Amino acid sequence: MPMVEMGNGEIYQVAIVEADPPAPAMSRDNVWTVKVTTAAGEPVDDATLTVKCSMPGHGHGCAVEDPAITNLGDGTYEIDPLIFTMIRNWNVLFTVKGADGQTDFARFSICI
């Protein structure tokens, strides 16, 4: 079952539908496939996505500051790589800007 977060503005929803490796791993490339939909469940194509990860307890981000984001179509995007450098709690913030200019933010909290 995918991890799903509704954006704080309740405009867009982000779901992690596939991850390699399946559980986030430290100090290696993590590749995530996400599905972006509207609050009504419609796929969001041609969105502009940014992904930022941060380690709240240490005040730093992932080893790769701006991972590559590939639009796979039908609201699906691949993020490669996310490299978590330490064991502990991490926040992964998705900023989604739709073609209509609406912007929303969805945050995932994970533990490595």
Would you spell out the secondary-structure blueprint of this structure?
Layout: E1 3-6, E2 12-20, E3 30-38, E4 48-55, E5 60-61, E6 68-73, E7 76-82, E8 89-97, E9 103-111
Antiparallel strand pairs: 1-2, 2-3, 3-7, 4-5, 4-8, 6-7, 8-9
Account of the protein in words:
- The protein has strands spanning 3-6, 12-20, 30-38, 48-55, 60-61, 68-73, 76-82, 89-97, 103-111.
- The protein is mostly beta strands and 112 residues long.
- The protein has a single domain (3-111), classed as Macroglobulin (MG2) domain (Immunoglobulin-like), CATH 2.60.40.
- The strands form 2 sheets. A 5-stranded antiparallel β-sheet has the order 1-2-3-7-6, with no helix packed on it. Strands 5-4-8-9 form a 4-stranded antiparallel β-sheet, with no helix packed on it.
- A hairpin with a 5-residue loop joins strand 8 and strand 9.
- The protein starts with a strand and ends with a strand.
- The mean pLDDT is 95.
Summary of the model, kept short:
By secondary structure, the protein is mostly beta strands. The chain has no helices and nine strands.
The total strand number stands at 9
Please state roughly what percent of the residues sit in beta strands, choosing from under 5%, 5-15%, 15-25%, 25-35%, 35-45% or over 45%. over 45%
CATH superfamily: Macroglobulin (MG2) domain
Query: Ends: how far apart?
Result: 19 Å
Name the strands of the widest sheet in spatial order.
Answer: 1-2-3-7-6
Number of helices: 0
What is the CATH-assigned architecture? Sandwich
Gross morphology is globular
Rounded to an integer in angstroms, the radius of gyration calculated over CA atoms is 13 Å
Structural class: mainly beta
**CATH-assigned fold name:** Immunoglobulin-like
Into which percent range does the helicity of residues fall?
under 10%
Count of the separate structural domains: 1
Q: Which series of helices and strands comes N to C? A: EEEEEEEEE
